[in-house]
Amino acid sequence: CGVFGVFNNSLASHMTFLGLHALQHRGQESAGIAVSDGYDINLRTGEGLVTKALKEKDLQELKGDIAIGHVRYSTAGGSNPKNIQPFFAHFYGGSFAIAHNGNLVNAEQIREDLEKNGAIFRSTSDTEVFIHLIAKAKEPPPSHIMLHENDRDFLPLIFSAMNKVKGAYSLLILREKQLIAVRDPYGFRPLVLGKNRSGSYFIASETCALDIVDAEYLRDIKPGEVFVIDDSGMRSYFPLDHADNPRKCIFEFVYFARPDSMIFQDWVYEIRKEMGRTLAREFKVDADYVVPVLDSGLLAAKGYSEESGIPLEIGLIRNHYVGRSFIQPKQEIRDLSVKLKLNPVRQVVEGKRLVVIDDSLVRGTTSKKIVNMLRKAGAKEIHFLLSSPPVISPCYYGIDTPTKEELIAANMSIEQIRDYIGVDSLYYLSLEGMIGAANKFRQKGFCTACFTGNYPVF
Ligand code: 5GP
Ligand code: SF4
Ligand code: MG
């Protein structure tokens, strides 16, 4: 999912619409915006792409200077209109709206406990437990924290909720007069803060969403941080005694984030390309062309081509009028959408030995079809390379990887996969190679659980 927030902008809902549009790759199932005019919070949501879910009329009706928005793809909870975010809630202390990127690993358990005590849930989403935990919290704030007077009522409730939940959360919370950002202590999902020249502040999953509203990147919201902005200024708190031990999602660099974004303080573009360069050092092959599986394989292919000296050719054309195929939750639809999305260029591939590069192999269904199409178009040899290691374990932290049964690398050897997708050779970037490519810049401290099975929290 993607989140976007605005503080101090008279066109807050329009700005949020733009921000969500830039984050569309992070979720295409639904979109929503909540706005506060200082007294009341109003909400509009819809299914599908941002431009379908929200209309100009919605934006005009959403008056106010503070807003949050969300684009969703289903992880926990499944695709269900009831799960469209932001969520809105009234409680004894007022009202708030909440938008969540990530996934809680103990949501089921908390939910069961709450339901036994009479709580009623209206969605199947893990995010809703936050609302209940916030509304029910009773503990005083940790004694080492000095709260600003504006924060004394509400923030202890968030701190208390953070103490109970486990997992990944980059959260935006909208109050009548405040915008609050919260990032889990491991910092699984990115979250950045920016500002424009007229003094509006923005918080977004990725910097490409700051670019679209002409805002400058200021800094990351840090792992474990609770950041508050209101008319009295900006404050940040670290309520959990968190070790400095981040577990940032390396898959954001491999695939999920946009290459024109800076996340976790590094450029996705550079790291993704470095993964391709590393791939070229690890696996050398005689070939005529390097062909990217667009869009996600482009930068790894560029890196591979530069490092190996094999020219890059666009041997597959991407139809841009379809979204990311994996985001369609039904297998039958996913099967079709591969053909809708990519088509080989016969003039490029006929009679040629190709190094085809994609970012990751998940189910193997896309790759098998791509290989089939390339063969039909006359490719002589196909060497299929991935700029990440085999995905062997599901993600429980907010990326929609399928169950273990559907993960091809969890069920087949590399040789069996090679045979299944029908290529001359198959090579995955090594774990060390992937981490090394990311560490070459500023990075330290990754989650790699989908490649290793080592889960930082469960
Ligand atoms: P496959 O050949 O495994 O069916 O599909 C691989 C393609 O799915 C790659 O191009 C990759 O970009 C894309 N992909 C990346 N991340 C995910 C994910 O989390 N889930 C799924 N299902 N596909 C993904
Ligand atoms: Fe990212 Fe994989 Fe960890 Fe999920 S399991 S947070 S996709 S690295
Ligand atoms: Mg892809």
From TrEMBL:
Pathway membership: Purine metabolism; IMP biosynthesis via de novo pathway; N(1)-(5-phospho-D-ribosyl)glycinamide from 5-phospho-alpha-D-ribose 1-diphosphate: step 1/2
EC number, as in UniProt: 2.4.2.14
Listed Pfam families: GATase_7, Pribosyltran
Swiss-Prot/TrEMBL keywords: 4Fe-4S, Glutamine amidotransferase, Glycosyltransferase, Iron, Iron-sulfur, Magnesium, Metal-binding, Purine biosynthesis, Transferase
PROSITE patterns: GATASE_TYPE_2
Binding residues annotated for [4Fe-4S] cluster, in chain numbering: 249, 395, 447, 450
Bound cofactor: record note: Binds 1 [4Fe-4S] cluster per subunit.
Catalytic activity of the protein: 5-phospho-beta-D-ribosylamine + L-glutamate + diphosphate = 5-phospho-alpha-D-ribose 1-diphosphate + L-glutamine + H2O
Residues noted as binding Mg(2+) in the record, renumbered to the chain: 296, 358-359
UniProt cross-references to InterPro entries, sorted A to Z: GATase_2_dom, Ntn_hydrolases_N, PRTase-like, PRTase_dom, PurF, PurF_N
Residue ranges occupied by any Glutamine amidotransferase type-2 domain in the UniProt entry: 1-232
Top-level enzyme category: transferase
Gene Ontology molecular function, alphabetical: 4 iron, 4 sulfur cluster binding; amidophosphoribosyltransferase activity; magnesium ion binding
Entry keyword annotation includes Amino-acid biosynthesis: no
A GO BP annotation: purine nucleobase biosynthetic process
List of catalytic residues: 1 (nucleophile)
Function in brief: Catalyzes the formation of phosphoribosylamine from phosphoribosylpyrophosphate (PRPP) and glutamine.
UniProt similarity note: In the C-terminal section; belongs to the purine/pyrimidine phosphoribosyltransferase family.
Name under which the protein is recorded: Amidophosphoribosyltransferase
Organism for this UniProt entry: Persephonella marina (strain DSM 14350 / EX-H1)
